[in-house]
Amino acid sequence: MGQSSFSLAAALLLLHSASAFLPNGGTLQNSVVPNRRNSSHELLALERPSWSLAASASRRATPEDPLPQTVDVIVIGSGLAGLSCAALLAHNRISTLVLESHDAVGGAAHGWTRRGFHFESGPSLYSGFSTAESPNPLKNIFQIIGEEPEWITYDRWGTVLPNGKKFAAKIGPEEFGSVLDEHGGIGAREEFDALMKRMGPLSDAAQALTSMALREDAGALLTLVLRYPGELFETLKQGQALNDPFGNIMEEMKIQNKFVKNWLDMLCFLLQGLPAAGTMNAVMAYMLADWYRPGVTLDFPRGGSGAIAEALARGVEKHEGSRVCTSAHVEDILVENGRACGVKLRDGTMIRATKAVVSNADPFITKSLLSNSIRDGRTSTEFIEYMERLTNTNDEEGGIPCLKSFIHIHAGIDATGLPTTPSADFPAQWAVVRDWDIPGGVEAPRNIVLCSMPSLIDPSMAPEGKHVLHAYVPATEPYEWWEGLDRSSEEYRMKKEQAADFLWSAIEEYVPDARKRAVEGTVQIGTPLTHERFLRRTMGAYGPRVQAGKQKLPGHKTPLEGLLLCGDYTFPGIGVPATAASGAITANNILSVQQHLAMLDKIRLPKKVKR
Hints:
This protein has helices at residues 10-16, 36-39, 80-91, 137-145, 173-184, 188-208, 220-226, 229-238, 246-252, 258-272, 281-291, 306-317, 363-369, 371-375, 381-390, 490-507, 514-517, 528-534, 576-590, 593-600, and strands at residues 21-22, 70-76, 96-99, 111-114, 117-120, 151-154, 158-160, 166-167, 298-301, 323-325, 330-336, 339-345, 350-359, 408-414, 429-433, 448-452, 466-472, 524-526, 553-554, 563-565. By secondary structure, the protein is α/β, with parallel strands linked by helices. The strands form five sheets. Strands 2, 3, 10, 11, 12, 13 and 20 form a seven-stranded mixed beta sheet that branches. It is globular, with a radius of gyration of 23 Å.
């Protein structure tokens, strides 16, 4: 979930870059979380302490190591946006200190080990990494910093339909036509082909400009307008259409086939947490062009998602003066003379930033880190009002609601008699849809489950003769179902067991005896409270529920001088490429135009394909 994104309607960005809000990965800091060194023993057996089990590729600095008193930039949080920003800054010899509350980097994309099994907290679908030329912003960041995981390619993704039928066709056009014929029946292939033709110009525009060229100042005239004039023109030809809801295109094309409509709704939801009616055309245009092009593959980082975070961290730490420090809990953002000038850690250590403080925490937590400065009058009224807007979740009052949360199950299982490689009969990843017609559709609680067995792709993820499993609901679990529960209570334990039972049933679509195969001590159940407590996600939320044509995400600059924001609550939003783009844009804002242009020289974008 949340992997695919888009190159952005950058021309529209340029038009709005001076404003506070612009059109439309886990974060980590929370000033109210108990001291981590003393808290892991308080956890229930089935609620994993995600930091204490995380495996790091190398020893990382902690507060026990001497910390610098002053650096150029402090980044709060090592989610993918924060690490992307920090790696680009360090590449340009900007001394950068990343402060992470956990003892592992990656935020919601971190990994951990238990009994020889390697588990992943977050994303499970990646594309655009194994090719030398790619529009994926995170791939472009890897190209700039000279660090990258090893990628394993595969090409199938399974689906279990409400009627019990299954298919695991290759992504791309080669086999999907047969899927449409079998499951959509008469007219399905024709409707989908007509839609793909209609989306062609939008796909060209969505992929024309790279988000890596964006910055929120006049320098964009050089990095965007003069550097990519043809691409800008391609985007301008589509204009506002890229920001319009994809649902409008479906109505225009008179999509009537039930399977096609349901399939598109599910794809939209898995991309950005919204059905077709609320998903931007740019998102779907990019995805349809990427997933249904000949020869396309999916990519998996050897060692799991944590390898992505480790590659970015290496990109920071290989430069003298830049560091990633784990177990470093930021308690306050310091403000002096109307400027963010540093941070204070929980142990009282103060570190100064001469250029900027970047927060990769969500806006609710960022606001809490500034509470002392706001209370003491060290911030402007304009900034206070800005933060109030960012944390307003009331849709009727112009706010942006939060998406729902997750329930997860992680487990190691005995692999005796099971396949060792993915196939059409036994894919490494599959979605289970229980009911297309339930009220709420794809957004209904516990209606869709995503399952992954990454050891089919990368055998190193599990001990020999074993497989590792992960199943979760894609941001459909209401926080209210869990809010206020005592994590040590019997009620909480029972609710977790009920959640696990539901998730096991989705795994059993392909592994009927999965529960019996479970390796003792490896079954771990995550809830919205787990997300809230260990991933520092307010209300355990996946991110902001931004509806195309109705709401806009903020940019990265703020009215408080020296404070910038990055992450999935800022433009362009949710997803691995999107959060990486957020981090890159934030770094671009700090760097000079000359440094920015030099980075653009290092990226390799796909050549335009004539239609």
